[in-house]
Amino acid sequence: TVRTGEQYLQSISNRSKVEIYVMGREVKDVTKHPFLKPSVMSFKATFDAAWEEDTKELGRAWSPYLEEEINRFNHVHRSPEDLAAKVKLLRKLSHKTGACFQRCVGWDSLNTLNIVTTMMASKGKTEIRDRFVEYLKFVQKNDLALAGAMTDAKGVRNLKPSQQPNKNAYLRITEVTKDGIYVSGAKANITGVAATEEMVVLPTRAMGPEDKDYAVAFAIPTDSEGVKIVVGRQLNDARRMEEGEIDALPYFYNHEGLVIFDNVFVPMNRVFLAGEWEYTGTLVEIFSAYHRQGYGGCKAGLGDVIIGASADLAKQIGVDRASHVQDKLTEMIFLTETMYSAGIAASLNAVKMCDNCWWVNPMHANVTKHLVARFPSQIAQLSIDLAGGIVGTAPSEWDLKNPKLKEYISRYLQGAEDFTAEDRLRMVRLVENVSMGVAFQIESVHGAGSPAAQRIMFTRLYDLNFAQEVAKKLAGRKSDVKFTPKAEPWRDSQSESEAKEL
Ligand code: SF4
Ligand code: FE
Q1: Which is the catalytic residue, given 197, 256, 285, 469?
Q2: Closest-lying ligand to the alpha carbon of 104?
Q3: Average predicted confidence (pLDDT) for the chain
């Protein structure tokens, strides 16, 4: 099924059982609440994209499980081209939202579980594989909005889950019955969660046998009993309550939430890991690389928005032909296209993990995310440079609309005659919110793992011995170099956990 954005909105409005808190108050209808509405609308864009002319082709995919067309956000990648389509779609969606649209974490979680449950099936755990395939079909059939919930509260970072003074610092299984499992703990920084229908929950790090109660993966409806969602605050968030059309975020935004699990029951047919600690390292690594690849699309798309706004603002004040302005725009283009190129490389150099199932190239995916941890702040800096101090000092929309001030502000905010003061204020606000917003600044650094996690992967994946052999040959110290590719370290690794501990 390919749902429309409207069908999605109808489904998530007025859920009576859901427990969501925004700034201390409970919210039932997330589609109407001013704080969450920009985020819901950004999520909705992923549904609309499957119907809109310019994204329809990228926004849909063919499901061999259902033998019908589905929204690409619930698709299991079947080729390197599928992976490249993901990056292309994300870039285009950023143009429609100017924000993170929050649906990729759930998508990456499905693809991760697809690979991991296939590995489990090859070791005899076919029942878990069957459960996952049934769940995948259910998600695709109903075109559900998924969250991926991975990061735990984590407590003391240098202690393992089982060593923590707070037993629930990592989400854990508290009871197993013949019908299912009970879990308690919390998942933090969960992107878009209040706007979702289902949560796919995964472990956040590699674990050992002593941590087996924490080796847990499952899927449940977002409105399951015992689940509490606490939505986090963001820069400028109170402006949404103003209901203006310039200052109050007329475009979209994303949100993150702390998800508390207070003795939540998960039926057995929704449980994908319950104690199988030996798969946790691989799972984390597969997920991280998938999500790191995606950033090459969505963050490049936000780069385009900022480049466009900066170029327009330069025109508005008559400096667009100045060579230093051109040079800054050129640098922003270079930074943006570099992030995108890495994301495409991570896709087209994909790794085949099973029949018709493809993982991204782990080295290039990690490079993509590492670039994304650095470049958005440089792009933002250039956009502030070009926009001028007005990004931090502009009068409010309300001043512009005040009859006593309107004429003055219109005159003193205007630059070139082809543009109005309102044109300028709108563009300044766009630069302010997108350049310095959570999605472009904070998520770019920490989303899908902090920079240190990528650097650990570089040293692990790069074949330093081979490089030394190559150098020795060229230096005349050795005549014969045999290429023996490094073993595939992702198949048996615990290294991501080292990164997560930092
Ligand atoms: Fe998708 Fe990018 Fe948001 Fe992650 S940060 S959910 S990849 S839009
Ligand atoms: Fe993210």
Answers
A1: 256
A2: 1
A3: 94
Q: At 495, is the pLDDT very low, low, confident or very high (cuts 50, 70, 90)? A: very low
Q: Among 357, 151, 354, which residue's Cα sits nearest to residue 258?
A: 151
Provide the β-strand partners of residue 265. 182
Residue nearest to atom 2 of ligand 1 (CA): 298
Question: Count of CB atoms within 10 A of residue 485's CB?
Answer: 7
pLDDT at 480: 76
Nearest-angstrom CA–CA distance, 328 and 325: 5
Q: Which single residue is written with the structure tokens 């440079």? A: 385
**Catalytic residue status for 196:** no
Structure tokens at 434: 């997108």
CA 244 to CA 350: how far, in whole Å? 46
Q: Look up tokens 């050129």; give the residue.
A: 330
The CA distance from 204 to 191, in Å, is 15
Bridge partners of 75, per DSSP, are none
Asked whether residue 433 is assigned to any structural domain, the reply reads yes
Q: Is residue 244 part of a domain?
A: no
Lookup result for tokens 């780069």? 303
Q: What DSSP line would sit under 464-488, residue for residue?
A: HHHHHHHHHHHTTS-S-----PPP-
Q: How many CB atoms lie within 10 A of CB 14?
A: 12
ipTM above 0.95, yes or no: yes
All residues at 6 or more sequence positions from 490 whose CB lies less than 8 Å from its CB, including other chains: 282, 285, 286, 289, 362
- Burial class of residue 475 (count of CB atoms within 10 Å of its CB; 0-12, 13-18, 19+): exposed
Give the chain's domain count. 1
Sequence-ordered list of residues with C-beta below 8 angstroms from that of 20, at least 6 positions apart, any chain: 26, 27, 28, 30, 36, 194, 229, 231, 257
Task: Specify the CATH number for the domain of residue 344.
Answer: 1.20.140.10
Q: Does a structural domain hold residue 416? A: yes
At residue 447, does pLDDT exceed 90?
A: yes
Residue 425 CA to residue 428 CA, distance in Å, equals 5
Ligand 1 surroundings by CB, under 6 angstroms? 90, 100-102, 104-105, 191, 294-295, 298, 443, 447
Task: Please give the residue range of the domain that contains residue 393.
Answer: 285-457
Q: Is residue 417 part of a domain?
A: yes
Give the pLDDT mean for 70-94.
Answer: 98
* Phi, psi torsion values for 23, nearest 5 degrees: 45, 45
Ligand 1 atom at minimum distance from 443 CA: 5
DSSP state of 442: I
Distance 317 CA to ligand 2 centre (A): 35
Ligand 1, closest atom to CA 90?
8
C-alpha–C-alpha distance, residues 405 and 70, integer Å: 52
Residue 346 has pLDDT above 80, yes or no: yes
Cα–Cα nearest to 297, from 342, 358, 348: 342
Report d(CA 283, CA 456) in Å as an integer.
17
CA gap 19, 391 in Å, rounded: 37
